[in-house]
Every structure is written in C-alpha cells, then in structure tokens.
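seq as requested:
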Amino acid sequence: MLVHSPLKYCERIDALLRLTLLKAWINDNQPHRYFASRESLYAHVAKTIIGNVPISFLEFGVYQGASMQAWTNLNTADESEFIGFDSFEGLPETWVNVKMILPRGLSQQRERFPP
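struct tokens:
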C-alpha cells in the first residue's frame, strides 16, 4: 500500500535512520571489531597486518589528504611509497552523513585555487 506523507524528504533524517540499521548489523555480526574512527582502523591494520614493511599506498580522491597523512605517520619504512590522485572536480555525487551534507561537485581545492 502506498502512503502519502506530508513530510518532505530529508537527507539527514534518512542518514540517521540508516545509522540505526548499521548499529543492528554491527551487533548481529560480532565478534568483528568496530572502530570509532578511520584512524583507529588504520592503526589496527598497520599494527596487526602490515607492520612497518614497505608498502605502496595509492589513494584516489585525496580531498584534504587526511588518510594519506595518517598512513605516512603509521608506516615509515624507507621504501614505502605514497601516491595520491585527485581530479579536482569535486564530489561525483551528493555525500550525506549525520554531521553534514556535501553537495555534488563540492571541491575544497577549487574554492582555494580559482581557475
């Protein structure tokens, strides 16, 4: 049955509702580890899987370089290489999470360096 709602669709509310589904999935799929931040995930992977052996780290869509910086701090092997790629065209689609909505095409680089 199709129900008409007078409420306008809101991407932030949708993101919040999806978080409840994620929490349930995490609880159902334990004992897998849960990491509160990507940096704590990176640290765990570096410590338990990679160690400090040389790696080739490729990042596509660098944005502000936070992941690249985290990995360069975690892996200091002399022969490691860290390569970042970015088109500087911004986001290919609207990016929605609980804290913010980033519109399609947003590019911090473009805002700092006009064409």
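The first strand starts at residue 56 and ends at 60.
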